[in-house]
Specification:
Length: 90
């Protein structure tokens, strides 16, 4: 009777890298300001650093041939995307 060899991938495996525990943060609403804040497992507010906000918009554009006095045949349409980002202090 022959023995089945182990799958090739199991021979290449090694131990997992050392891991560290990640602190638990919870988002909550501040009852006075009605703004979301992040607190740690001890109830202390955590500052996650500042980040900016941005807006994005899609502006459609269309063109029609002629001056509108006669029936038009072809039209052309496309859109332009705009993206604005405010200053962020890192």
């Amino acid at each position: 009777m022959t023995q089945t060899p182990p799958p090739w991938g199991t021979q290449r495996m090694g131990p997992y890298a050392a891991t560290t525990s990640v602190p638990q943060y919870t988002p909550v609403i501040d009852p006075e300001t009605q703004i979301a804040v992040i607190v740690d497992e001890h109830g202390r507010t955590v500052d996650l650093g500042s980040h900016g906000t941005s807006t994005s918009g899609l502006t459609p554009t269309t063109t029609a041939p002629g001056d509108g006095a006669g029936p038009g045949t072809a039209t052309d349409a496309d859109s332009t995307e705009s993206y604005d980002q405010d200053q962020s202090s890192d």
